Structures are given as structure tokens and as C-alpha cells.
Amino acid sequence: MAKRIEIKSPADIQKMRVAGKLLREVFNEVSSMVAPGVTTADLDRKARSLIESAGARPAFLGYHGFPATLCTSVNEEVVHGIPSNRKLLDGDIVSVDCGLVLDGFYSDTATTFAVGEISAEARKLLKITEQSLYKAIEKMTVGTRIGTVSHAVQDYAEAEGYGVVREYTGHGIGRSMHEPPQVPNFGHPDTGFRLQAGLVIAIEPMINIGSWHTETLEDEWTVVTADGSLSAHFEHTIAVTEDGPFILTD
User: Whole-angstrom Cα distance, residue 103 to residue 86?
Assistant: First the structure.
């Protein structure tokens, strides 16, 4: 039997605001470390230390066996990259995805960072991917159909000639990391269920310079672009309210 979409109470959303605020603080600390010569394992250790010292729990660590606190995906890696002793190089881009659990509620966010000086091509990819996220967030008003939110990402990114990843989607979030509904980054306007106040979802466009097709490496986690092109990933946890979308991780 399919799980129903859970609508959060104002008290629930307040707890998720606190979790989102902590996650943003952790993220800001980790992002300040991103530089040539730093390893993705360095970033992971810092994130875990900050989360646990604040009395929260890393959401990804142990999730379906995932071995780390962060997902760190470099260059052609799309999502679910495992932190390692790989050193970041000048010109790389690295997507950092992090989640935590605080007071029974999850929060989830991701950003793709420039490492040192990156190419104009990579810089444009980061800009368009982030803007596609905000295009979708703008549509998150009461009564809007989910297809309109999904289409906002696709329409904006594809107009720039980019590939919008199909295999991985945004999702509902709350007492579990992944709750209904799934929120693809592609779709048709005015289709699907209508957004209600109290719905909380994580929107996370994954955009490739080349084709949207992906492959999974032998570690059974790291997803890469099938054509080896660069990929970027941005994510926020957002609540639908009567006053419009409220970004809990900003």
C-alpha cells in the first residue's frame, strides 16, 4: 500500500525550521573549507563533528548502508559520491549534499561549489542549476500542481541546452528522509496533485552540461554522467505555506 502524503502541522514545521537552521550552519562551515588540496574526507569529518556536537544525527550515515555523512560528487559525478582521500584540484566543481535529523525531523540541502578558479563553462552550469532550483521554488504556492513545479526546472535548464537528470528526483521530507511525493525535475505544467499548506518537499535539480543520461559506478553509489560531462546539484528543503514557499535550509 502506498504511503500517503503527510501534511505537517505548524509545530512540525517549526521543528523543521530549527533543523534547517542547524543544517545551514553546518553547511556554511563545511563550504568555507572547500579549496584546492582539501580532501572530500576532510569535509565529511567536519560535517559529522558539527552535526553530532549540536545534538543531531547525520541523516545519510548508514542510510541503506551509505558509509558517510556527506555525499561529495566531483566534476562528472552527479550524486551520491562517497567521501575519500581524493584531493580537490583547482578548477574542480564539487557537489556537497548533507542531511541531518534533529528532534525527530529531517532536513536536506545541497550546493555545488567551485574549487579555486573554474572555467566559464562550469561557472555557467552552476549558475543555471541554482537558478533552476529557485524557478521551481517560486512555483510552490498553495493550489499549484506539482507538474508545474517540476516543469519550471526543465524549462529553464533545457532552454540553456543542458540535460536534466531523470533518474533521481526531489522528494517529500519530514519524519523520514524520503517521503511521498516524488518531485521530478521534469514534467508537464498543470498536472499532478495540488500543493497544500503544510507540505514539505526537498527540490533538487541535477543538471548536466551534456546528456541527461547517467551511470552508477562499481561502488554501487556514485552516479556519473554517461557522457563524462560536468554535472551540478542544488537542493533546498521548502515548506508550502499560505504566504508562499518558505525555504527551511536557507
Answer: 34
Q: Along the 250 residues of the chain, how does pLDDT read in single tens digits?
A: 357 899 999 999 999 999 999 999 999 999 999 999 999 999 999 999 999 999 999 999 999 999 999 999 999 999 999 999 999 999 999 999 999 999 999 999 999 999 999 999 999 999 999 999 999 999 999 999 999 999 999 999 999 999 999 999 999 999 999 999 999 999 999 999 999 999 999 999 999 999 999 999 999 999 999 999 999 999 999 999 999 999 999 9
8 A C-beta contact, residue 187 and residue 139: no
pTM: 0.96
Please spell the DSSP secondary structure of the chain, one letter per residue: -PPPPPPPPHHHHHHHHHHHHHHHHHHHHHHTT--TT-BHHHHHHHHHHHHHHTT-EESSTTGGG--SSEEEEETTEEE-PPP-SPBP-TT-EEEEEEEEEETTEEEEEEEEEE-SS--HHHHHHHHHHHHHHHHHHHT--TT-BHHHHHHHHHHHHHHTT-EE--S--EEE-SSSSSEEEEE-S---TT-SPBP-TT-EEEE--EEESS-S-EEE-TTSS-EEETT---EEE-BEEEEEETTEEEETT-
What letter represents residue 33's amino acid? Answer: M
